[in-house]
Design goal:
two-stranded antiparallel ribbon; 29 helices; mainly alpha; 1% strand
Length: 625
Amino acid sequence: MAESEIAGRIACGVLTLLGALLLAMGRGTENGAPRGRSRRGVAWGALLVLALGHAIWLTVQPGNLLNINLAHHYLGAKHRVGYGEFYSAVQAALLEPQAGMRDLEHPPRMVRATDEEERAYLLDLIRERGDTLRGGAKFIPFGPTAELRAAARASGALAREAEEILTRALPPGSIAPFRSDVVAVTGALQGRPLIDDYGYNGSPFYSAVRSIDPALRLTFGPLVGFLSLLWQIAAALLVVWLLGMALDYSVEERLQTAALLFAAWDFTGWTVPGLVFAGWWLPIGVAAWAASRGRWVLTGAALAWATAVKLFPALLLLPALVGLLGSAAARRASSRVLFGFVVGAGGAWVVSLASGRSWAEFGEKIVSQFQGTGYLLNSVSVNQLLMVLGLREEWAGAALGLWVAVFLPVVWLRTREPREQDWPRIFLVLLGVGGWVVHTWFNYYAIAPLFLLPFVGRTRPRFAALLCLLTALAALWPEFDDPRLLDRESLHVTKLLPYLAVPLALLWLELRVIQSGAIVRRGVWIGSALLFLIVGGRVVQERGLLALEREGNAALDRGEAVVAVDRFQRLLRRDPDRGSAAMNAGIAVAIAGNRRRQGDCSSAPSRCHRRVRRHCAIGRAGWRA
């Protein structure tokens, strides 16, 4: 990571710590009236100025202002290239080989990533599409790969392949502008690879709306980056104001929200330089404001807008769906929300037709991309936490997510019909617990709790300060791809826990007011305890198996075959289908048997070897499958 990013992360952590301190000091009372309000307002205003100035400074650093996310959205929104053909078209526009790039149709694979694969591709390309080299020169098939690339370019093979790809991927008349933009983007990124990420992820609706952005009429460069920065800052302040009106915040509380938002590394480090926040948080703000005013059709239409951009905000329809089972007033409100959502979704679909993109192709790309494990390294979901702890069984994360983010809110909504002023808070809590239910949940999505900290601070300032402190600690810890984090499990777990614990704490505050009988309340807490105990038991069991496998592998590396056989036998008795352990057990059995034949009685295999061999056969069959 660049030094500026490390310094920026530490600075954000310190600024968030200052916010936690102000929250803890924020609610003294004297004669029934708040004490020191003007001083607190000045302090929060100063923190906002510092945080906003730091966010701007960090964003304009080299490599941040013009980043790969901005480049992808610039090219993807401006040109109608298929989602799966995005990198192929980029390479073709640069007259580069179709190699060393991510396979956008089958992530996380790479296309011809090895030297052998690229050489075979170049040889076939020259033979099929190349002309005689200029001056009758010949190329040596066994020469360096760089010479093969030069030969492919000189023979015209790359140019012919590029023309075929661009003709297939782009509408007529747009090939030349696309080439020009790709060259400009590549030059502006100054060596940062453009083809190793996951391509353009803007939905067809986003593509259509973004196409009216004046920045797309400019050549990709610093001016485009500055316009994006201004748009993000303006959108963030507008969202803070909308949510402030929805939650009935005072001016001071809106200052708190804005200061905490810009102080957070998850926002400043990952959202301000890109285009993630403005696209779907603005409609969330509109939906919250409309719900707080009882404008239910507008609420549904705004949720449709947010869903058409990022899909997962459809989770916010949960209160309306549950409301259909409530009183007559709740049914009327919920019906209007759902009606507005249907009308808004239809409008979004009609608008998206102008983008020339397919929703089916977009859905296929998103599902294959986000349901895999390629993104889990940078995820702050419960699935990432379970994976760090050694449990890779998908049912565990799904069960916890459905219970925390779906079942518990359903119980709460069924036992206590929300008032109009409750809906914005419900929306933010549901967005916060998205990391429990969504397989891959990014840290820049996990900023929803920041909007609720001033609300919690009204009555529980120390609790709000504690939640803010956890957010600060997550920023001060190393980044997710840092080897110091990946090599230390305890550090990795403490980095992830705030992202799951803070929204869970906010949900707990809401569940405390369940207005139902003791049986329902006890059932909720007993069910929660049982589910966490079951998943926790599986984590402990899996960690024990991993420990046995590590001990067996270590013993095998040291040449202690009998010890390795013992560890693998114990492991395979508990998990017969673990293919890697079964293969290593077979190796250990072979080594021990060979030593016995040579007269080394101390390494003689025990009578359990027949059982281990049987497990090995099962493991090899599963491994091949």
